[in-house]
Fold each of these.
Amino acid sequence: MTVDFKGNFALAMIVTGAVMVAGCGLITSVQAAEKATRPFPWHQTYVAGALFPSRWTAQERDADVAEFYQQWKADYVRKVEVTNGDGVQYRVTFGHDEAGRTVSEGQGYGMIITALMAGADPDAKTLFDGMWRFARQWPSDGDPRLMGWQIPPDPKRNDNAFDGDADIAFALLLAADQWQQPAYLQAAREVIAGIAESTIGPDSLLPLLGDWVEPNGEEYDQWGTRPSDFMPGHFAAFGRATRDPLWTQVRNRVLDVSIALQQEVSPRTGLLPDFAIVEPDGTVHAAPPKYLEGYYDGAYYFNAARVPWRMASDALLENDTKAATIARRMATWMRIRVKGDPGKIQSGYLLSGLPLPYETENSTLFVAPMTVASMLLPDGQEWLNDMYANIRDRHMDYYEDSVTLLCLLVLSGNFWSPSGAVE
């Protein structure tokens, strides 16, 4: 069965009021609505002026998401054999070459995706609950309210990673709205409390690299941060759910630091680095090579590639003008850099705009988030269409495909922000 045939089949299912999801059988839209308050497809209203890929109808974009989800689920979602009697567990695998490994980031992605796909997949809630059980099965050694960042764990210590728990908390808030169960909201608030107490710098108000970082540590401290952890839309949702003013402060802080980085570190491109240093006096720097992960820690690389999606999503859903300016600046530069050809986007750039040597692959990880940011370009319709065509049915591996699917949900209008109001 070819990709085109399956794509057309998924479209036909949506047009006739039903969606086929791999391994799940058929569910009608009426049945889905009985189980989900916002059954997919659920078209959210975005900020005025937002563009959508216009070569495809809304139904065709929904079909693209449904088809991509089928493949993602088949490739990366696995049932976990458990003997403790607490219920079935599911995990998101790290990819084709490391199918036995899972990271908290993947659980967060999976929980968001399944919460949003309820109504198309009759097993969405079962998968969501199983992923949440798996996350709880492997708590962080630093703060047990959070998830250890990798499974199997490091035998010495398995602490958290900020983005994984931030996405898990956001997913729990989505679930509270989607299935109207207050237990999800309570669980989200517990995770959010752990994030606030163990992974936000008390003075910097920035995300720490993890709950293993001492705020005033010698090698790593609260002034070293990862811009891909700047999730202003999540922080807005956390504020609504907890009524804690901290999250307004953190949200404003990451936006202001992002703007400072664009102005002072990457004035030509607007690209943000994988890791950044924010001095107590407000001075900002890209992190030096090998700061934490590798030689390109101070470049726009496999962490920072997610920033355009995070910022643009906040702008689209929260009408955030700062986030829109940040995302628009990156997308504008990229369109000029590749002369309007998405196929020429490479897998990493110096902040000056020069492509990283030997990183010539046209990875969807670097295209999909920029596609979301391009929804904010008033004159970018054809560019957006070409960008969408590049990613809509292209599969790579766990990381690329998970981020691409999340971006496709935004691009189809099916991403929404939780209210945090279920009691």
Note: The chain is about 45% helix and 5% strand.
Amino acid sequence: MPPAPDAVTPLEGEICIDASQLRPGVHVRLPVPWIEHQFMFNSFVIIDDEQVRLIAAMKLPQLFCDPRRCTVPLPQPGEAPAADDGGGDHQAQRAVERAAEQQRLAALAAAGIAEKHERSRVMGELRGRLDKAQQHYLSAARAVGGAIKGFARNPRESIKQVAEVSAESTAALLADPDSAIVLIAEKAHDDGHAAHSLSVMTLALLLGKQAGLPEAALRALGIGALLHDIGKLAINPAILRSDERNRHEEALYQTHCRCGFEQAARAGSLSQPMLDAILHHHERFDGSGFPDRQSGSAIPLAARMVAIANRFDNVVNPVDHRRAMSPSEALSTMWTREQKSFDGTLLQLFVRAMGVYPPGSIVQLSDGRVGAVVGSAPAARPLSPKVLIYAPEVPRRQSIIVDLARDCALTVERPLRLQERPAEELDYLLPRRKINWSYLPAQP
């Protein structure tokens, strides 16, 4: 495999160095393809003498260094201390030791490269699951979009289509007990109703699963979630898109709950929990919601679940994308500032199901690198998810995945907002970010 076109050319700010200048604290970039060496990154600051020995053993014709990234003064070429070979016996002994050391370093290098190939295999499996998830999502989006648009004309057929999507999605979730969800901030297509409905269904099912609902109840919850905003079809889209509705517009907006409920009830084939989700998904636990200002446990269970899912998706995917929060920010906001609005037990279950850093979140790590969360953190270490690292020198198909629960040297520094990240970074980390919500089994 030949190196990338610019691999043997110094990048801006880099200089050529040789192996004698390598020290802990010196930055180095290896001008070889990522898969052909044992280090996690092509470009890094050396942390110990072992790394110095491993790099020197590669016998590369050139190395690059960015002095601005060094944490120690860069030595001049040839500053390595001269070895004292002593007499003939000592020279023979040193030759044996050097041969043994070369074998040890070669074995370490081989093990590191083998681990990289394993990472590549894992990434291939991840891509396969994403492809399958994308197919499921696009099929569901078409079905739900058609069902919503045709609801007034043929509600029974629409409900049948929605029920099939709910059943398939519930089965997918239950088939993999370690499932997680991937959030892609951009909507999958122009049909905002369908995209939002699918998001809310997925989130509600995840919460329902965490709460231990049986499969039949999950399917009913999914149908109610998919139809929760059916009443919005009768409202002027300009009012729906507005973030600053006047009193009259707000009153008109609030009619969508009862209007949707009445349409769905006339269809005659929906159970009470499904109708509850449509009518009461804007009720609030403290009685501040609408349309009936219900409070506490008087709000039906399905409606309490859909309320949490609906609010989360509206915060992460608002009408004005400039106000969008990262998934972790949304969870924090709902838990710290809006907790009184929701069933506290269900909200706690939702946070537990999503994780502190939900899959799909963009995060900055403690070493300054940026990555996308691709696997949920274990329960024992909720701050340590699996992260795919942004490393443009590494081909996307061989992307680096770090399990922070195992690699204790790295931690998540803070979550980042998608709209504040450059396009090339998002294209690398979330190439399918137009999928919206989809199922993704956690990494093994």
Note: The CA atoms of residues 205 and 218 lie 6 Å apart.
